[in-house]
Amino acid sequence: MFEAVQTLQLRLLHVGFIGLDHHWQYDKVISPFSRLYLITGGEGWVFHNGNKYALKPGNLYLIPAYTYSRYHCDAFLEQYYIHFMDGVAGGFSVYETTPVSYQRAAERIDYQLCARLLELNPGRTVADIDPQQYDNKPELMRVDQPDARQSLSHYGQTQGILLQLFSRFLSDEGTPGMRRDKSFHQLTGALQFIHQHLHEKITIEQLAAILHLQVDYFSRLFLEVVGVRPMEYIHNKRLERAQLLLTTSNASLKEIAGRVGIPNIYYFSRLFKRKYAVPPGEYRKMKWQV
Protein backbone atom coordinates (compact mmCIF):
# COMPACT_ATOMS: atom_id res chain seq x y z
CA MET A 1 0.00 0.00 0.00
CA PHE A 2 2.70 2.50 1.01
CA GLU A 3 4.93 1.30 -1.84
CA ALA A 4 2.23 2.19 -4.36
CA VAL A 5 1.70 5.69 -2.94
CA GLN A 6 5.46 6.29 -3.00
CA THR A 7 5.50 5.75 -6.78
CA LEU A 8 2.21 7.56 -7.49
CA GLN A 9 2.31 9.95 -10.43
CA LEU A 10 -0.54 12.31 -11.33
CA ARG A 11 -0.70 14.26 -14.60
CA LEU A 12 -2.93 17.30 -14.90
CA LEU A 13 -5.32 17.53 -17.84
CA HIS A 14 -7.71 20.34 -16.93
CA VAL A 15 -8.46 22.65 -14.02
CA GLY A 16 -11.15 25.30 -13.79
CA PHE A 17 -13.83 27.03 -11.76
CA ILE A 18 -17.36 27.09 -13.12
CA GLY A 19 -21.00 27.77 -12.35
CA LEU A 20 -23.42 25.22 -13.79
CA ASP A 21 -27.19 25.15 -14.24
CA HIS A 22 -29.94 22.72 -15.22
CA HIS A 23 -28.17 21.96 -18.50
CA TRP A 24 -25.57 19.96 -16.53
CA GLN A 25 -27.35 16.63 -16.94
CA TYR A 26 -25.35 13.89 -18.63
CA ASP A 27 -25.50 10.11 -18.68
CA LYS A 28 -23.22 7.29 -19.85
CA VAL A 29 -19.99 9.20 -19.18
CA ILE A 30 -16.98 6.86 -19.09
CA SER A 31 -13.81 8.93 -19.04
CA PRO A 32 -10.23 7.64 -19.40
CA PHE A 33 -9.21 10.14 -16.72
CA SER A 34 -10.22 10.87 -13.13
CA ARG A 35 -12.27 13.86 -12.00
CA LEU A 36 -11.98 15.76 -8.72
CA TYR A 37 -14.56 18.33 -7.64
CA LEU A 38 -14.59 20.89 -4.84
CA ILE A 39 -18.16 22.19 -4.49
CA THR A 40 -18.43 25.84 -3.45
CA GLY A 41 -22.13 26.54 -4.00
CA GLY A 42 -25.44 25.09 -5.11
CA GLU A 43 -26.26 21.41 -5.28
CA GLY A 44 -26.28 18.47 -7.68
CA TRP A 45 -25.46 14.78 -7.70
CA VAL A 46 -23.21 12.28 -9.39
CA PHE A 47 -23.64 8.52 -9.73
CA HIS A 48 -20.68 6.14 -10.05
CA ASN A 49 -19.38 2.87 -8.65
CA GLY A 50 -22.92 1.84 -7.78
CA ASN A 51 -23.63 4.81 -5.50
CA LYS A 52 -25.28 8.22 -5.77
CA TYR A 53 -23.34 11.10 -4.19
CA ALA A 54 -25.04 14.39 -3.35
CA LEU A 55 -22.76 17.25 -4.41
CA LYS A 56 -22.88 19.81 -1.62
CA PRO A 57 -20.74 22.86 -0.72
CA GLY A 58 -17.79 22.18 1.53
CA ASN A 59 -17.02 18.74 0.13
CA LEU A 60 -14.49 17.14 -2.20
CA TYR A 61 -15.53 14.39 -4.60
CA LEU A 62 -13.48 11.90 -6.63
CA ILE A 63 -14.69 10.05 -9.76
CA PRO A 64 -12.11 7.42 -10.85
CA ALA A 65 -11.18 6.84 -14.47
CA TYR A 66 -13.01 4.23 -16.54
CA THR A 67 -16.12 4.25 -14.35
CA TYR A 68 -19.64 4.65 -15.67
CA SER A 69 -21.01 7.90 -14.24
CA ARG A 70 -24.00 10.23 -14.44
CA TYR A 71 -24.19 13.94 -13.61
CA HIS A 72 -27.20 16.05 -12.64
CA CYS A 73 -28.01 19.61 -11.53
CA ASP A 74 -31.53 20.99 -11.10
CA ALA A 75 -30.76 24.68 -10.79
CA PHE A 76 -27.25 25.82 -9.80
CA LEU A 77 -23.93 24.22 -8.95
CA GLU A 78 -20.59 25.99 -8.49
CA GLN A 79 -17.35 24.03 -8.38
CA TYR A 80 -13.66 23.72 -8.98
CA TYR A 81 -13.00 20.82 -11.35
CA ILE A 82 -9.72 18.96 -11.88
CA HIS A 83 -9.13 16.23 -14.47
CA PHE A 84 -6.02 14.09 -14.20
CA MET A 85 -4.36 10.82 -15.18
CA ASP A 86 -2.82 8.52 -12.58
CA GLY A 87 -0.30 5.71 -12.42
CA VAL A 88 1.93 3.78 -10.02
CA ALA A 89 4.94 1.52 -10.54
CA GLY A 90 4.28 -1.51 -12.71
CA GLY A 91 1.75 0.23 -14.92
CA PHE A 92 -1.13 -0.08 -12.45
CA SER A 93 -3.81 2.43 -11.63
CA VAL A 94 -3.70 3.77 -8.09
CA TYR A 95 -7.27 2.51 -7.65
CA GLU A 96 -6.05 -1.07 -8.05
CA THR A 97 -3.41 -0.87 -5.37
CA THR A 98 -4.62 1.67 -2.84
CA PRO A 99 -7.90 2.01 -0.90
CA VAL A 100 -9.66 5.31 -1.58
CA SER A 101 -12.83 7.09 -0.55
CA TYR A 102 -14.91 9.06 -3.02
CA GLN A 103 -16.16 11.87 -0.77
CA ARG A 104 -14.37 13.96 1.84
CA ALA A 105 -15.11 17.11 3.81
CA ALA A 106 -12.99 19.92 2.40
CA GLU A 107 -10.47 21.73 4.57
CA ARG A 108 -9.83 25.46 4.37
CA ILE A 109 -6.53 24.89 2.62
CA ASP A 110 -8.25 22.87 -0.14
CA TYR A 111 -9.93 26.04 -1.44
CA GLN A 112 -6.54 27.76 -1.49
CA LEU A 113 -4.94 24.79 -3.25
CA CYS A 114 -7.59 24.69 -5.98
CA ALA A 115 -7.35 28.44 -6.52
CA ARG A 116 -3.55 28.22 -6.70
CA LEU A 117 -3.67 25.27 -9.13
CA LEU A 118 -5.91 27.30 -11.43
CA GLU A 119 -3.61 30.30 -11.12
CA LEU A 120 -0.60 28.15 -12.05
CA ASN A 121 -2.40 26.61 -15.05
CA PRO A 122 -4.61 29.27 -16.65
CA GLY A 123 -4.59 27.53 -20.03
CA ARG A 124 -5.99 24.24 -18.71
CA THR A 125 -9.66 25.19 -18.46
CA VAL A 126 -12.27 23.55 -20.68
CA ALA A 127 -13.43 26.27 -23.04
CA ASP A 128 -16.94 24.93 -23.68
CA ILE A 129 -18.64 22.24 -21.60
CA ASP A 130 -21.40 21.71 -24.16
CA PRO A 131 -21.04 18.04 -25.20
CA GLN A 132 -21.54 19.13 -28.80
CA GLN A 133 -18.33 21.13 -28.55
CA TYR A 134 -16.27 19.05 -26.14
CA ASP A 135 -15.04 16.52 -28.68
CA ASN A 136 -13.10 13.27 -28.33
CA LYS A 137 -10.15 14.74 -30.17
CA PRO A 138 -6.54 13.60 -29.76
CA GLU A 139 -5.67 17.09 -28.48
CA LEU A 140 -7.93 16.50 -25.47
CA MET A 141 -5.42 14.25 -23.74
CA ARG A 142 -2.18 15.70 -25.03
CA VAL A 143 -2.42 18.51 -22.51
CA ASP A 144 -1.08 16.09 -19.89
CA GLN A 145 2.40 17.10 -21.03
CA PRO A 146 4.20 19.95 -19.21
CA ASP A 147 3.50 23.34 -20.74
CA ALA A 148 6.73 24.58 -22.34
CA ARG A 149 5.83 28.08 -21.13
CA GLN A 150 5.47 26.95 -17.53
CA SER A 151 8.44 27.41 -15.21
CA LEU A 152 9.95 24.50 -13.33
CA SER A 153 8.73 26.08 -10.11
CA HIS A 154 5.13 26.24 -11.33
CA TYR A 155 5.31 22.70 -12.67
CA GLY A 156 6.64 21.43 -9.34
CA GLN A 157 3.92 23.28 -7.45
CA THR A 158 1.29 21.80 -9.77
CA GLN A 159 2.47 18.26 -9.03
CA GLY A 160 2.60 18.92 -5.31
CA ILE A 161 -0.93 20.36 -5.22
CA LEU A 162 -2.34 17.43 -7.19
CA LEU A 163 -0.79 14.96 -4.76
CA GLN A 164 -1.96 16.92 -1.74
CA LEU A 165 -5.56 17.10 -2.98
CA PHE A 166 -5.62 13.44 -4.01
CA SER A 167 -4.23 12.44 -0.61
CA ARG A 168 -7.51 13.60 0.96
CA PHE A 169 -9.15 10.51 -0.52
CA LEU A 170 -6.63 7.92 0.68
CA SER A 171 -8.24 5.59 3.17
CA ASP A 172 -6.93 3.15 5.76
CA GLU A 173 -10.34 1.51 6.02
CA GLY A 174 -10.31 -0.18 2.64
CA THR A 175 -12.88 -0.02 -0.14
CA PRO A 176 -14.90 -2.67 -2.00
CA GLY A 177 -12.94 -4.49 -4.66
CA MET A 178 -9.35 -5.63 -4.67
CA ARG A 179 -7.95 -6.67 -1.25
CA ARG A 180 -4.85 -4.66 -0.25
CA ASP A 181 -2.80 -7.21 1.65
CA LYS A 182 0.19 -9.49 1.19
CA SER A 183 -1.80 -11.65 -1.25
CA PHE A 184 -1.87 -8.74 -3.70
CA HIS A 185 1.91 -8.45 -3.52
CA GLN A 186 2.11 -12.17 -4.22
CA LEU A 187 0.38 -11.48 -7.54
CA THR A 188 2.45 -8.44 -8.48
CA GLY A 189 4.71 -10.29 -10.93
CA ALA A 190 1.75 -11.67 -12.86
CA LEU A 191 -0.09 -8.34 -12.84
CA GLN A 192 2.98 -6.51 -14.13
CA PHE A 193 3.35 -9.10 -16.89
CA ILE A 194 -0.27 -8.50 -17.92
CA HIS A 195 0.16 -4.73 -18.10
CA GLN A 196 3.40 -5.00 -20.06
CA HIS A 197 2.17 -7.61 -22.56
CA LEU A 198 -1.44 -6.65 -23.24
CA HIS A 199 -0.66 -6.54 -26.97
CA GLU A 200 0.41 -10.19 -26.92
CA LYS A 201 -1.36 -13.48 -26.31
CA ILE A 202 -1.47 -14.18 -22.57
CA THR A 203 -2.41 -17.52 -21.04
CA ILE A 204 -3.28 -18.53 -17.50
CA GLU A 205 -0.46 -21.10 -17.69
CA GLN A 206 2.05 -18.31 -18.40
CA LEU A 207 0.89 -16.26 -15.44
CA ALA A 208 0.89 -19.20 -13.05
CA ALA A 209 4.40 -20.16 -14.16
CA ILE A 210 5.69 -16.64 -13.41
CA LEU A 211 4.66 -17.12 -9.78
CA HIS A 212 5.63 -20.81 -9.68
CA LEU A 213 2.06 -21.78 -8.81
CA GLN A 214 -0.27 -24.48 -10.06
CA VAL A 215 -2.80 -23.18 -12.55
CA ASP A 216 -5.87 -24.00 -10.46
CA TYR A 217 -4.39 -22.48 -7.29
CA PHE A 218 -3.30 -19.35 -9.20
CA SER A 219 -6.79 -18.89 -10.67
CA ARG A 220 -8.45 -19.24 -7.26
CA LEU A 221 -5.97 -16.86 -5.63
CA PHE A 222 -6.42 -14.29 -8.41
CA LEU A 223 -10.20 -14.38 -8.08
CA GLU A 224 -10.00 -14.08 -4.30
CA VAL A 225 -7.61 -11.11 -4.33
CA VAL A 226 -8.62 -9.19 -7.46
CA GLY A 227 -12.33 -10.01 -7.47
CA VAL A 228 -12.50 -11.28 -11.08
CA ARG A 229 -11.00 -14.22 -12.93
CA PRO A 230 -7.64 -13.69 -14.70
CA MET A 231 -9.02 -13.63 -18.25
CA GLU A 232 -11.77 -11.18 -17.29
CA TYR A 233 -9.13 -8.90 -15.74
CA ILE A 234 -7.04 -9.12 -18.93
CA HIS A 235 -10.05 -8.29 -21.11
CA ASN A 236 -10.94 -5.33 -18.88
CA LYS A 237 -7.42 -3.91 -19.09
CA ARG A 238 -7.31 -4.39 -22.86
CA LEU A 239 -10.61 -2.59 -23.28
CA GLU A 240 -9.52 0.25 -20.99
CA ARG A 241 -6.39 0.70 -23.11
CA ALA A 242 -8.53 0.57 -26.25
CA GLN A 243 -10.76 3.29 -24.81
CA LEU A 244 -7.73 5.47 -24.17
CA LEU A 245 -6.42 4.89 -27.72
CA LEU A 246 -9.83 5.68 -29.20
CA THR A 247 -9.79 8.95 -27.29
CA THR A 248 -6.18 9.99 -27.88
CA SER A 249 -5.18 8.64 -31.29
CA ASN A 250 -6.39 8.53 -34.89
CA ALA A 251 -5.46 4.86 -35.27
CA SER A 252 -7.99 2.67 -37.07
CA LEU A 253 -10.20 0.28 -35.12
CA LYS A 254 -8.29 -2.65 -36.61
CA GLU A 255 -4.96 -1.18 -35.53
CA ILE A 256 -6.24 -0.47 -32.02
CA ALA A 257 -7.63 -4.00 -31.71
CA GLY A 258 -4.21 -5.39 -32.61
CA ARG A 259 -2.40 -3.06 -30.21
CA VAL A 260 -4.50 -4.27 -27.28
CA GLY A 261 -4.11 -7.96 -28.07
CA ILE A 262 -7.53 -8.64 -29.64
CA PRO A 263 -6.63 -8.81 -33.35
CA ASN A 264 -10.05 -10.13 -34.41
CA ILE A 265 -11.90 -6.88 -35.07
CA TYR A 266 -15.34 -8.48 -34.75
CA TYR A 267 -14.51 -10.08 -31.41
CA PHE A 268 -12.95 -6.82 -30.25
CA SER A 269 -16.10 -4.87 -31.19
CA ARG A 270 -18.32 -7.39 -29.41
CA LEU A 271 -16.27 -7.23 -26.19
CA PHE A 272 -16.12 -3.43 -26.31
CA LYS A 273 -19.88 -3.08 -26.77
CA ARG A 274 -20.53 -5.57 -23.96
CA LYS A 275 -18.44 -3.46 -21.55
CA TYR A 276 -19.32 0.08 -22.65
CA ALA A 277 -22.79 -0.46 -24.19
CA VAL A 278 -21.72 1.10 -27.52
CA PRO A 279 -19.51 -0.24 -30.34
CA PRO A 280 -16.00 1.26 -30.55
CA GLY A 281 -16.73 3.25 -33.71
CA GLU A 282 -19.71 4.96 -32.10
CA TYR A 283 -17.78 5.47 -28.88
CA ARG A 284 -15.10 7.39 -30.77
CA LYS A 285 -17.74 9.82 -32.03
CA MET A 286 -19.20 10.46 -28.59
CA LYS A 287 -18.85 13.93 -27.12
CA TRP A 288 -17.15 14.35 -23.75
CA GLN A 289 -18.41 16.81 -21.20
CA VAL A 290 -17.14 18.16 -17.89
Give a summary of the structure in a few sentences.
By secondary structure, the protein is of the alpha+beta class. The chain is built from 13 helices and nine strands. The protein folds into two domains: 166 residues, Jelly Rolls (Sandwich), CATH 2.60.120; 104 residues, Orthogonal Bundle (Arc Repressor Mutant, subunit A).
Overview of the molecule:
By secondary structure, this protein is an alpha+beta fold. The protein folds into 2 domains: 166 residues, Jelly Rolls; 104 residues, Orthogonal Bundle (Arc Repressor Mutant, subunit A), CATH 1.10.10. Helices cover 41% and strands 21% of the residues. The strands form 2 sheets. It has a 5-stranded antiparallel β-sheet with strand order 1-8-3-6-9. A 4-stranded antiparallel β-sheet has the order 2-7-4-5, with no helix packed on it. β4 and β5 form a beta hairpin. α8 packs across α9.
Shape estimate: globular
Number of strands: 9
Number of helices: 13
- Main sheet: which strands, in order across? 1-8-3-6-9
Q: What would you call the structural class?
A: alpha+beta
Give the helix level as a range of percent.
Answer: 40-55%
Give Rg in angstroms: 20 Å
